[in-house]
Every structure is written in C-alpha cells, then in structure tokens.
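As a warm-up, study this chain.
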Amino acid sequence: MSEEDGERNVTPRYLGLAPYLYYADAGAALDWLVRAFGFTERVRYVDSAGNVFQASVLAGDNEVQLAGVGADYWATKGVDGPVGQLNIVFVDDVDEQHARVQAALPDVDVSQPQDQPYGARIFTIEDIGGNSWTFWQHVSDTVELPTGWREIRPE
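Now compare it with the structure written out below.
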C-alpha cells in the first residue's frame, strides 16, 4: 500500500486469470484441446441441438473458457480469425508435452522445441480455431538481450 496526494493505492489481489477463446465449433475445439494437449474437460453447456455454446477446460489448476460463436462470427467482425493473442502454458517438460502433441496430432506440422535467449524452451502450435498456444519450460534465469537493449525492473 502506498499513499500519494492523500490517496491510497492498494495493489489488488488477483485470484486467477483465464483466457476466453472463441471457436466456430466449440465442441470440436473442446475435444481437440483435451486430445492434443491433455487438458481436462471441466464442463460443457449445450443448446437443444447439442451444440456447445460454452465450456471450460483445465490445464493443471488453470481454467480456459471456450465460447461457440458459429462459423460466420469472424467475418462479421471483419477479420479472418482470432488476432492479437498468444496463450502460454507453463510446463515442467516441454519435450514431453511436444511428444504428446505430436502423438495426438500425427498429421499436423508441430514446430520443434527450441531454446530461447530469455531462458525458456518452447514450441508453438495453432489450434483448430486459429488460436496460438506456446508451451513454455523455464530452463535458465540468464537472459541474453540483443545489443543495445537493457533490462529495467520497477523498484
């Protein structure tokens, strides 16, 4: 807590953060995320025709929300698909997760895990709805910044 100009600034206590992802076919996306990544289905809500309009999966203790928006949703927004988002899933062993994804999706070209200069080993894959997922394993506290860059941390 700090006080400036007589006002109290309180740092909020965050209880969690969950991405909310849109899919033309949320049922297919739900099944894909469970099969490909090993997520656990928590719940699905379906309409009278059996179409999934809302669902959630768990990645460990972390929840991911899914929404079924229909095939023409993105066109009505003037875009081809999801934009400006990357979902990062932190894992203990990125190579093991990569092997799991490759086994579940033998016909999909999955990038190979690579060590990054910021202390991570990662691979990225796009899901059936166009959302990007990066699986991230922390491997080093050493960060190799490009020439001219510097690290600044708030005090």
